[in-house]
Amino acid sequence: MAESRQRESSHTANQSKQSQEQQADERMRETLLKADTFTNAPKVSRKTSTKEEREVIAKQQEEEHKEAEKLAKTATKGAIGRWWTRVQSGPNKVTFTMAVVALGVVYGDIGTSPLYTMQTFLNGQGGIQNADREAILGVLSLVFWSITLITTVKYVLIAMRIDNKGEGGIFALYSLIRKYGGWLAIPAMLGGAAFLADSVLTPAVSISSAVEGLKTIPVFEPMFRENANLTMIITAIIILLLFSVQSRGTESIGRVFGSIVMVWFGFLAVVGVFNLSNDWSVFAALNPVYGIRFLFSPHNAAGIALMGTVFLSTTGAEALYSDMGHVGRGNIYFTWPFIKIALVFNYFGQGAWMLRNQHNSALEDVESLNPFFQMMSPGVRYLAVALSVTAGIIASQALITGAFTMVAEATGLNWMPHLQVRYPARTRGQLYIPVVNGVLCVSTLAVLFLFRDSEHISAAYGLALTITMITTTVLLAVYMWYNRHKVGAIVFSIVFLSIQFMFFIASMAKFLHGGWFTMLLTLMILTIMVTWNDGTKIERSQRRHMKRKDFLPALEKLHGDFRIPYFADNIVYLTSDSEMKRLDTDIFFSIFADHPKRARAWWAVSVQTTDEPCTREYSVENFGTDYLFRVKIKLGFKVSQSIPAYIHQIMHDLEHTGELPQQKSQYPKLDADPGVGTIKYVLIHKALMPESTISERGALSLQMKYAIRHAAGSPVKWFGLAPYNPLIEVQPLFLSTRRPPRLKREANNLRQVESNEDVLALTKSSAKSAKATKQSAAQASETKPARNQKSAASGSQQRQANQRKNQ
């Protein structure tokens, strides 16, 4: 009976203990589940796209369906209808919306050229009183044929047909032809650096020259006369506002600007035609003989420097080519005739006004006479100034968007660090780079405060752009040469290099007056490109990869070695290697360096950005194991790189399929996911070893590359890992190393050791000699039988002693 009660009591105690343990487990699970309410850690949705993306895709599909129906109806309306259908189905597609965007994004720079080209011409000739009919017809002829040959023929008709998947610009062109020779990187880098340098000056000169038009309005004239810095202050405010709205994307900006540009170019044409109504004879300047004759005439006060003035009328042509990927080639083809006609009417209208007012004594004392504003009545100037300021902003926008595109392409060529890129619109060409935007803004303001007004800024303006045009011509000629147009390549090179070298020589006259600043910027940007390219080549030459048979045995042994504690349940390495069947040696040595990083699972993850806006895909290679996973994540260019959230999804997916053993978390953690064990993210950087056998240039390139990477920002932010305390490891760059000579032991220590050894040897020798002498004396005093017996005993003892000694 007592035993029964004892068993019942023991059973009750066990049940109570189990109940307490269950309650403790439930409280622990509740704590784990509640962790999400405290951290709000990001998680992936069950849907593969957002509501906004589905709405946009549905709207786009509906528009495409309507467009297809419209084209089907058009195709039945004869030859013109079939031609239009072919155009709308190819790369030259034209849409009204993007044509408006093209006006706002592409033509801003070339649209502001009439503001200062003829003003610079009059200053070079010594005033309007020195500009006779020969001079005016000569400069108009040079301007017309420069726009026709450089902008229309070279860029619109030739360069824009050579695109890289719809993208234009010097870097996209280089990507097409770099297989023809390594030397082609030199003109590509030089031209790209010059274009980016010129992007700094364009906002300053375009906006300041437009704001200075306020001085021509009688109401504002006293205000500007009293405050000499007022123009600079207004220009700085406009520049700050312009760069602050870049994050919204060029598509939304282009739509607003596009309608204004239509008004602006219409205004240019109307004002020009109004002044032409009294003298249409200026169209005699369409004959190129007038331009050539005046250029080499002794009557030309500016000499060859006149071509530097003429070149101002073509600025914006390179931006037109670079921005092709933003708006499409067909939309530029569609809008360019309207732009060209408006520009010609305005330039020739200014020429007609100068012919009428050559002998106007009231204009002789006007400082920095500008025909663009002077040919209008005072009442019209209000509208002209308002539109010109807006046009200056648009001109700046064209170069800013072109700079974004150029930097993104340079990054793809590994000529610049991988910067954070945002895509505000659904078109990949519409991009925004925060770091570049900030650098451009600060640099533009620095140029404004350094040169203070448009007259001094224009001295530096255009010089670098001539270098870009020359290098673009070289690359275009190489493309034509290797694509069965050798005769065309020769003719193209001779014609356009002759014209553009003339522009360059003329622009060099500006070097000491401000051109040095543009060249300095060009050299700085070029240095970044060259050093980054060299550093990348050195790093890639040392990169090694391991096959499955090389790395799997060691990882399998470490995974099962229970003597080593877990470094983390999961170790995730971010790598740029996209190959799925191999492992980077950097990851392998990171796992085994110092104390081995044992884990339940190792992950090597690469992230690839696709050309589609909303791609969300991944693929996995597990090498036949349940502890090593090679993951490639494909994200659309508009998808944020929330890598931690996607890693958790992939782990849960693999647990569900049984490829990854379950990892239930026992304690709360930052990511608030109890279904997955702890995760440690690791990024690996390289460092140069002091003993490396490398040239001084190579070492300098690597040091500069690492300094630029540090200044550009850590990749931790790009992948969204900053809140998760990732581990950043530095591994040596395994270049061939010099073998340093062996160390030599100090002489005094060496003599002491040698002396000790001699004393020890002498002591041993004396002991042996004394022992032998003693044995000889003892043997001589004994009798022969005794000696025999003693000798036998002594021999036996000696043998035993020898045996013990040997043992």
Describe how the helices and strands are arranged.
Elements: H1 2-39, H2 51-75, H3 78-89, H4 96-106, H5 108-111, H6 117-125, H7 133-158, H8 170-177, H9 185-211, H10 221-226, H11 230-244, H12 250-276, H13 288-295, H14 306-311, H15 317-322, H16 324-327, H17 329-356, H18 371-374, H19 378-412, H20 434-451, H21 454-460, H22 463-481, H23 486-507, H24 515-542, E1 545-546, H25 548-559, E2 566-574, E3 583-584, H26 585-592, E4 598-610, E5 616-621, E6 628-636, H27 643-657, E7 679-688, H28 696-712, H29 715-718, E8 727-733, H30 747-781, H31 784-806
Question: What attributes characterize this protein structure?
Answer:
31 helices, 807 residues, potassium transport, ion transport, alpha/beta, single chain, Probable potassium transport system protein Kup, 7% strand, elongated, two-stranded antiparallel sheet, Amino acid/polyamine transporter I, K_trans_C, potassium ion transmembrane transporter activity, six-stranded mixed beta sheet
**How many runs of DSSP E, i.e. beta strands?**
8
Give the count of structural domains. Answer: 2
| Measured distance between first and last alpha carbons | 73 Å
DSSP strand content: 5-15%
Q: Radius of gyration over alpha carbons?
A: 40 Å
Q: What does the overall shape look like?
A: elongated
Please mark out the parts with pLDDT under 50 across 5 or more consecutive residues, or reply none.
Answer: 777-794
Category by helix and strand content: alpha/beta
Helix content: 55-70%
Gross CATH architecture of the largest domain: Up-down Bundle
Reported for the largest beta sheet, the result is: 6 strands, mixed
Give the class-level CATH name of the largest domain: Mainly Alpha
Total count of helical runs of at least 4 residues: 31
Determine the CATH superfamily of the largest domain.
Amino acid/polyamine transporter I
Q: Report the average pLDDT across residues.
A: 79
Strand order of the largest sheet: 5-6-4-2-7-8
* CATH fold-level assignment of the largest domain: Amino acid/polyamine transporter I
Pfam families: K_trans, K_trans_C
Catalytic activity: K(+)(in) + H(+)(in) = K(+)(out) + H(+)(out)
InterPro entries: K+_transporter, K_trans_C, K_trans_N, Kup
Function: Transport of potassium into the cell. Likely operates as a K(+):H(+) symporter.
